[in-house]
Design goal:
The protein has strands spanning about 25-35, 45-55, 60, 65-70, 75-85, 95-100, 105-110, 115-120, 125-130, 135-145, 160-165. By secondary structure, it is mainly beta.
Length: about 190
Amino acid sequence: TSPFTIDSSQSLTCFLKFASSARGTFFDTLVCEQISPFGVDFPCKKVLLPLKAKVVAILIKVSDIDFGTIVVNSTSLDSFSINNASLDFEAKLSVFNASGIRTPAFSFTNGLPSLPFVLNFLDHNTVNVSFNPSVPGSFIDTIFFSHNAYSNPLNDSIAIIKGKAVYSQLFASDFDWGRIRVKSGWQDGSVL
């Protein structure tokens, strides 16, 4: 509350609240007036305290994995990454927690990174995943990451992992003919 008195040997701590919905650097000034001991009719001294706040946009991008189609009881390895995709050099992405894999066909090859962890501007962390289905079918799982990035439609903090398993006698792969000119004759190729 004001007015208040501060002796020359004292100090005062003030807590200010700042909120912004936009990124950037913001400046303002806090004006403190020293009231004359001789009354309000006498000149008073003003102390100007500069204020500065910087708001950075922290963005998280987590990639996905699509293992495609593999044979039952075989193993495929792939990885996804957790990225600090922020637009500001000073932005540090903190990842606090992660959900685990719930589908038995998927597993972390080396586990998750130690949590919590911090990613600097444009840094990433890679997570290796194994797909080893024991039955045919389509499999999908999601891993959710909790983080310090503000609500933003550009944020993607979920890794989607999917794959399909078939019995080997039903397995066929496609063939990419690449770029072929019209009327260039027969092209050799094979499908396994």
